[in-house]
Design a protein that fits this description.
Elements: H1 2-26, H2 58-63, H3 65-81, H4 84-106, H5 109-134, H6 139-159, H7 164-185, H8 193-213, H9 226-251
Length: 252
């Protein structure tokens, strides 16, 4: 068991390093991007924006890799259990980390789209995974629904970008309600310990996100940013949610 865990974390570390190299290489195209993110010039969270650097927001960029590492841990853990949907869950976390890092490094509209696309993928997975279990959908149908819904959501980023945060919030709330409905339907009680921990941490993270966005608590040049904590805490909540999913699988 210890060797298995060590192997998972080693592979996750290597994959995270490879993702970081891919990210660094992708920054070469940022010099050709001229359309800024919607939050520019003064509403891209609290952290100071260094327009002369290839990394516009240092702390917010590198804290995004918490999602990358957590995602690879989930993915490689799911390789052992041969759970395709949990592999997708892991890749969703990797994608959200990569997109978030690219967004904070470039503060371009493309970065904004990649950031939100990852957030939509992860949050829509949570909702559709609940629907998958409630209505006993096949794995294939669930994956098709995930693809179609994200094509629609990502298209909306170009049509109504100002709705991006409301859509993400609606997906998270719908996913939670779907999960609660699934739990209520079960004849045998489900241990919701990890789910409760994940939700509690996410609530704390959201509170910090608001304080940072509104600059109520703000020190622009500090390495410790509220949005940085949002990334780290949300990544932890993602892993706790995976533990909840895995615990249910193990029980089955």
């Amino acid at each position: 068991m210890k060797n298995k865990k060590l192997t998972i974390h080693l592979w996750s570390l290597l994959a995270s390093v490879a993702t970081a190299f891919l990210f660094w290489g992708s920054l070469n195209i940022s010099s050709h991007l001229t359309q800024p993110a919607n939050c520019m010039p003064a509403h891209c969270f609290c952290e100071y924006v260094d327009m002369q650097s290839s990394i516009k927001q240092f702390s917010n960029t590198f804290s995004s890799f918490a999602f990358v590492y957590v995602g690879w841990v989930i993915f490689f853990s799911s390789v052992y259990t041969k759970d395709t949907l949990m592999k997708i869950f892991g890749i969703s976390s990797v994608f959200i980390g990569f997109g978030s890092a690219f967004f904070h490094a470039t503060l371009t509209f493309l970065g904004q789209v990649l950031d939100l696309a990852g957030m939509f993928l992860l949050s829509s997975f949570i909702l559709l995974y609940a629907i998958h279990r409630i209505f006993h959908l096949t794995r294939t149908n669930t994956i098709i629904l995930l693809i179609v819904s994200n094509v629609i959501l990502d298209g909306g980023l170009f049509i109504v970008p100002e709705m991006r945060r409301y859509l993400f919030g609606a997906l998270i709330v719908s996913g939670l309600l779907g999960e609660l409905f699934y739990i209520k339907k079960q004849h045998n009680p489900i241990d919701t310990k990890w789910l409760k921990y994940a939700f509690a941490i996410l609530l704390i993270a959201f509170g910090i996100w608001i304080l940072d966005l509104t600059k109520v608590v703000c020190e622009p040049t500090s390495l410790w940013q509220g949005h940085t904590l949002w990334h780290i805490l949300s990544a932890i909540a993602t892993y706790l949610l995976y533990l909840y999913y895995r615990q249910e699988k193990n029980k089955d």
